[in-house]
Amino acid sequence: QEQFVESGGGLVQPGGSLRLSCAASGFTLDYYGVGWFRQVPGKGREGVSCISRGTGGSYYSDSVKGRFTISRDNAKNAVYLQMNSLKPEDSGVYFCGTCPGLARLEYGPPFYWGQGTQVTVSS
To answer: Considering only Cβ atoms within 10 Å of each terminal Cβ, which end of the chain, N or C, has fewer?
Structure first.
């Protein structure tokens, strides 16, 4: 079954760092632009960052630009999100997904959603 498997979340104090990892299971990541999407209770998934399939052009929401860095390793079939200078408003469940709408940070088909990984930024 095709799905993303996210890991690396946790509880961190404001100003701290986390590195999220996402492995593609059952399919090849090379074919897709991919991204990270955050969901908080009562709201839909919002785009945080996306990276293209080829040259690795990356895109960020204004709220995380300069603090987060997305990267991918096609040989490992994985994508990562380095999160620095974390703020309480960065909290949420982070999902990995395909991102055909790169600059718009929009997820799209195919929908290989995993369980996500919880990030909590709190003192």
So the answer is: N
